[in-house]
């Protein structure tokens, strides 16, 4: 009797695991789905590249400029969680020599 009960419990468990609804991430909304902005490298004077990232769509455009020299946009990434939801299109920008942008040897830039 115990073997049959144990076998029944194992069978039900296996069936329950296999029949669990598998979510299609592309079909269901996600809380971070707004973070679909694209990274872009913009070439300056044909030599150096600066990194930018656009997040969200909206009538209000916000350019987030980090401090520096030496900082990057990283500490402002928290804005992605709420500004686009309020209808703001935000742009990150890493200055030359910072973050994901080129670090040219020419210090006069």
Describe the structure.
It is a single chain. The chain is elongated. It is of the alpha+beta class and 109 residues long. Strands 1-2-4-3 form a four-stranded mixed sheet, with no helix packed on it. It has a domain at 32-104: Rossmann fold. It is built from one helix and four strands, in the order αββββ. The longest helix has 17 residues, at 2-18. A hairpin with a 3-residue loop joins β1 and β2 (48-55).
* Gyration radius from CA atoms, angstroms: 24 Å
Taking the sheet with the most strands, its summary is: 4 strands, mixed
What percentage of residues falls in helices of 4 or more residues?
10-25%
Cα(first) to Cα(last) distance is: 82 Å
CATH architecture classification of the domain at 32-104: 3-Layer(aba) Sandwich
- Reading side by side through the largest sheet, how are the strands ordered? 1-2-4-3
CATH topology of the domain at 32-104: Rossmann fold
């Amino acid at each position: 009797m115990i073997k049959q009960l144990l076998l029944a419990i194992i069978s039900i468990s296996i069936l329950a695991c296999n029949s669990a609804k598998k979510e299609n991430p592309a079909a269901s909304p996600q809380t971070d789905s707004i973070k679909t902005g694209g990274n872009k490298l913009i070439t300056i004077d044909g030599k150096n590249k600066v990194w930018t990232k656009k997040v969200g769509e909206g009538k209000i455009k916000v350019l987030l400029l980090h401090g520096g020299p030496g900082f990057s946009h990283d500490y402002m990434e928290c804005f992605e969680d709420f500004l686009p939801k309020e209808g703001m299109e935000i742009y990150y920008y890493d200055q030359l020599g910072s973050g994901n942008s080129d670090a040219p040897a020419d210090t006069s830039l």
